[in-house]
Design a protein that fits this description.
By secondary structure, the protein is α+β, with helices and mostly antiparallel strands. The protein has a single domain, classed as Pnp Oxidase, Chain A (Roll). The protein is built from six helices and 15 strands. Strand 2 and strand 3 form a beta hairpin. 27% of the residues are buried. Bound molecules: flavin mononucleotide. Flavin mononucleotide binds next to strand 3, strand 5 and helix 2.
Length: 214
């Protein structure tokens, strides 16, 4: 079945993209406004894009204000205003709390308090990280890329990465026990997620091995 994006509306394109490009990691973004009011929200239009420099990208849309006009979601407005944010990754243990922080609270409500979460200070940026998250990336705004009228790609440079101590196998060699993190991905629809526990190994094939064995 062909779906030609020239002929279908935005909502249908959203449905097709989010039903097929799965699983998507979830950036659980903690940011602060100019007055230090903390905000947290999840975003699954997210991934790591480069390691040198270390860059992540998040697509953040608009929301409708009380007067019916569209304005950037609070996370995007805060990142633009302060240039700083923390991306926390979502695990099986924190998924319910993450879902609470996605509620459309009015601006100024601290979603972390609503979700019963606690924070730890960051080292390089002002917004704190979520203590319950097994991984947190301290980020500064690297570049903004407008995506049409309604969305924007926020590129962040990672300044530091926190991993829960018990999931670090060998700090010197930077080995992490990834399955132990129990990270989740976002799937189709508004409420489907995937675990990252159904794993298999597929070693890379060297060219000489390929030529020998094919
Ligand atoms: C798992 C999940 C992923 C989401 N991904 C995105 C996304 O990639 N982009 C986006 O604009 N909104 C996304 N949302 C919706 C925002 O989290 C929601 O609009 C939130 O209220 C925005 O909060 P803020 O205005 O405090 O930034 C997602 C929601 C959930 C539950």
């Amino acid at each position: 079945m062909l779906f030609d994006f020239a002929t279908i509306p935005a909502q249908a394109r959203y449905k097709l993209l989010t039903s097929t490009i799965t699983p998507r990691p979830i950036a659980w973004v903690v940011s602060e406004d100019e007055h230090g009011i903390i905000n947290a929200a999840p975003f699954s239009f997210f991934n790591v894009l480069s390691s040198a420099p270390p860059i992540i990208g998040i697509g953040i849309g608009n929301r409708e204000g009380e007067d019916g006009t569209l304005r950037p979601k609070d996370s995007r407005a805060n990142i633009i205003a302060t240039g700083q944010f923390v991306v926390n990754l979502v695990s099986e243990d924190t998924v319910n709390a993450m879902n609470i922080t996605a509620i459309d609270f009015p601006t100024g409500v601290d979603e972390l308090v609503e979700a019963g979460l606690t924070t730890l200070p960051s080292v390089h940026v002002k917004p704190p990280r979520i203590a319950e998250s097994p991984v947190a990336l301290e980020c500064e705004l690297f570049q903004r890329v407008p995506l049409g009228e309604t969305s924007e790609l926020v590129l962040g440079r990672i300044l530091a990465l926190h991993v829960r101590d018990d999931a670090v196998i060998d700090a010197q060699r930077h080995y992490v026990n990834t399955p132990m993190l129990k990270l989740l991905g976002r799937m189709h629809g508004a409420g489907w997620y995937s675990r990252t526990s159904d794993l298999f190994e597929l070693p890379r094939i060297a060219i000489d091995q390929w030529q020998r064995e094919k």
